[in-house]
Hints:
The chain has 15 helices and 15 strands. The protein is of the alpha+beta class. The strands form four sheets. A six-stranded antiparallel β-sheet has the order 13-12-11-10-14-15, with helices on both faces. It has a four-stranded mixed β-sheet with strand order 3-4-7-6. The chain has a three-stranded mixed β-sheet with strand order 1-9-8, with helices on one face.
Amino acid sequence: MINSREELIAEAKQFNSQEEQINFIMNYFLENVQYNYAYLFAKGYAEGDISQVKGTFGLAINKTRADGDTEFAVTQAPAVGESKIHNDILAIRDRNSEDYDKFVSELRGYISDVMNSHIANEDIVAQCVDTVMVQIENGLRSTKMIKYNGMDLECNYDISKVLIDFILKPGEYFPPEYNNGLITNGVCDDYTKYLVTLFNELGIEAHDIGGTSELGHAWVVVKVGNELKSIDLTRAVFIRDGFKGIPENQTSKDWLYTDLDKMFAMQKTRSINEIDGRELANAISCQNYDERVFLELLEGPAKNEAGIKTIVKNALENGVTFSDVQDAERKQSIAGRDSKGINRSDE
């Protein structure tokens, strides 16, 4: 029984080879970590095609009133694009504007149907629905004081405002969970950051990979000896949990520690767009993957003096100033992955 991160590392160190250490760690997490499907509903499914929301709030009649709620509600709406799920839930609100209990019942059933269309495990779906519903009802009970024609009005939040918050800040509503330093619940980005740090602490070269599968995604590539291996805990957990759409001949073990060639063969839609936060000039896919080139990319930008001088010389010749370079580096360092459309943690 492993009770802390320190114990996990100590147990892993009992194995002689890095491959054995990796397999031990990945088997532990496959048995003990959960995927945050509530986050996936909020960020992956609720977002849809919405790319921008109105910067200002609106005022509306409160159609989701429970006992003691206010007559008015603060609302917010998409400015660009639309989401089927967002629109469906607003329709549920409008159909049940006179009966809060019916609204909650229909909304719960709708979220359950959405999750059941993706996951075959009824227990996981039920847990996800409970988590999402708690956050929605808490959001609807939130209040805000606004001024209207010189009057101070206390308002609840409308369901549209709550869903927009989920879309923009899912990590605040459905954050990863840890116990004594062990990650117990999260999404792909959480798994990846955690494992890269853990492997590096064991002396294993590990890299944070960003890209796509069906949606934005993150996973780990390790270098063991002269071999590159892909580690995708998310995909392994999906198979364990009965996530639909994954070929039946694939197993969780296939994704825990596998050659990159096999990774691309198992999922043709897979691509690599980032390595350790560095965006690649050209995405890597099954069509152009080359191990030698990929190894060079893992090493990162040239660090030797001659290489740096060449980079600077080329930049100056192209009219790029030193300030431009500094500004670009600063923007790159603070740019969050959440700003790139669907977050890579959507899977």
